[in-house]
Design a protein that fits this description.
The complex is a heterodimer of chains A (240) and B (230). By secondary structure, chain A is α/β, with parallel strands linked by helices. Chain A has a domain of 159 residues: 3-Layer(aba) Sandwich (Rossmann fold), CATH 3.40.50. Chain A has 8 helices and 9 strands. In chain A, the strands form 2 sheets. Chain A has a 6-stranded mixed β-sheet, sandwiched between helices. A 3-stranded antiparallel β-sheet of chain A has the order 2-1-4, with helices on one face. In chain A, a hairpin with a 2-residue loop joins strand 8 and strand 9. The model of chain A has no long low-confidence stretch (mean pLDDT 92). With 230 residues, chain B is mostly helical. Chain B has one domain: Orthogonal Bundle (MetI-like fold), CATH 1.10.3720. Helix content of chain B is 80%, strand content 0%. Chain B has 10 helices and no strands. The radius of gyration of chain B is 20 Å and the shape is globular. The chains are: A alpha/beta (240), B mainly alpha (230). The interface between A and B is medium-sized, with 27 and 16 residues.
Chain lengths: 240, 230
């Protein structure tokens, strides 16, 4: 019997990414392993989103290499991403999930029941027939999460999933993230909200100006940061 | 106005000649919309989603072809279908089929150009999501056409409006033969030149009414669809 294909660990070796002559990520080396959520923190424009897109495989590094479970070419079958502003397909909430299930190769006969279950998992019960574009920001984020989970991913990437959401919507998203992480899915997410990072992170990666400044266990990072940038960021000072 | 009264009488009495002209006009224009849509929508979507050398030139030409003069299209199709032309053996000249061909040539670029813009706008919104979901090229095109369907209806309407209103192309390739290739626009031109204003006005009113009804139906369909699908 063959071992199941896994995308973990994800290894970034000396990875840089440039666009239009601007270096967005600069010689980043990072290993993402199974386990508790990894949270990328840093100010806006630090390169967190680009890093997530590289890990997802949506863009290729201009220098260095990324490997998924030791493979350089790995289709995103086992990875899913929720963007900061997810695009809602022009169909109902359930229709969006069913679309993602179809894209993931789930047989048609199983899609309706599966879509209901995923909707319930993210707290959208009762909203299945509502047009996705007419949902609130928080509901759209949860729908995007359900869509991402349709793939049954090993790795779930979340780009500032609670940005511009109110506390109630933020709590709803964070609850789902905890459930997902507890189910064994590796979560890698970005945020510039320190409170959220403290609530969710098992591991922290501080990104600033396209470089990884510091990374390690969340408890250690917040209790005893090693770098000036980390100390300043935790103290609430502006990193520019 | 006696002309207006006569036109109304013609309409209300269901004048067979008038009805035949209306029927043929609708058949020709709607057929051209169907064929123009079948050619224009996939072509526009393909141009929107692919990158190839000369793509910008194709877009410029496509946009320019939206203003294609109907008489030039008529002339080109005439040369193609005339007895000595490359497709002369098909014997289509001065038939409704030739008129459908001419109108299809006229409106396919309009539908393609508008479809390209619609699909490209939607693609810039969906690109990352569809890539993340690992949706293949054909799946992407199908998704974008389906999700852009309400905007694409507008493209088809633009094509229908152009087809229903044009006179030059159908006149050249159809010949305006009474009872066979006479459409509303060619009949209006002929009856006006003959001085038979009641029929011309009647046909004009029917033409305007058809365009309004088709646009209203499409608008209602679009609103209902948007309400249901978002």
């Amino acid at each position: 019997m063959r071992a199941p294909v896994t995308d973990l660990p994800i290894v970034l070796e000396d990875v840089s990414f440039s666009a239009g002559g601007v270096t967005i990520l600069d010689r980043i080396s990072l290993v993402l392993v199974a386990g508790s959520p990894t949270v990328l923190i840093g100010p806006n424009g630090a390169g967190k989103t680009t890093l997530l897109r590289l890990v997802m495989g949506l863009i290729a590094p201009t220098r260095g290499r990324v490997t998924w479970g030791g493979r350089e070419q790995a289709s995103p079958t086992h990875r899913a991403i929720v963007f900061q502003r997810p695009a809602m397909l022009r169909r109902s909430a359930a229709g969006n999930i069913r679309y993602a299930l179809a894209a993931a190769g789930v047989p048609r006969a199983r899609r309706a029941a599966h879509a209901l279950a995923l909707g319930a998992l993210v707290g959208l019960t009762g909203l299945e027939r509502r047009p996705a574009r007419k949902l609130s920001g928080g509901e759209q984020q949860r729908l995007a999460l359900a869509r991402a989970l349709a793939k049954e991913p090993q790795l779930l990437l979340l780009d500032e999933p609670t940005a511009s959401l109110d506390p109630a919507a933020t709590k709803a998203i964070e609850d789902v993230i905890r459930k997902v992480a507890a189910s064994g899915i590796k979560v890698v997410m970005s945020t510039h909200d320190l409170g959220e990072a403290k609530r969710l992170a098992g591991e922290i990666v501080l990104v600033h100006r396209g470089r990884v400044i510091e990374s390690g266990a969340a408890e250690t990072f917040f209790a005893a940061p090693k770098t000036i940038e980390a100390r300043r960021f935790i103290a609430g000072e502006l990193l520019v | 106005m006696p002309g207006d009264v006569s036109a109304l009488q013609l309409l209300l009495s269901g004048d067979p000649a008038l009805l035949a002209i209306v029927r043929l006009s609708l058949i020709v224009s709607l057929s051209a919309v169907v064929f123009g849509g079948l050619i224009g929508v996939p072509f526009g979507a393909a141009v929107a989603l692919t990158r190839f050398p000369g793509r910008e030139a194709v877009i410029v030409i496509l946009n320019a072809l939206m203003g294609l003069p109907p008489v030039v299209v008529g002339l080109a199709v005439y040369l193609l279908l005339s007895r000595s032309g490359p497709l002369g053996s098909w014997g289509l000249l001065f038939t409704p089929q030739a008129m459908i061909v001419a109108q299809t040539v006229l409106i396919a670029p309009i539908i393609a150009a508008l479809a390209r813009q619609t699909v490209e706008d939607l693609w810039s919104e969906y690109r990352d999501e569809l890539a993340a979901m690992d949706v293949g090229p054909l799946g992407r095109i199908a998704t974008l056409i389906w999700d852009g369907r309400f905007s694409l209806v507008t493209a088809l309407l633009a094509g229908f409006g152009r087809a229903a209103a044009e006179v030059g192309a159908v006149l050249i390739v159809g010949g305006n033969i009474d009872g066979f290739t006479r459409t509303m626009t060619t009949a209006i031109a002929l009856e006006t030149s003959k001085g038979d204003l009641p029929l011309a006005i009647g046909l004009g009113l029917v033409l305007i009414a058809i365009v309004v009804v088709v646009n209203a139906a499409a608008w209602g369909l679009r609103r209902a669809g948007e309400r249901l699908a978002g």
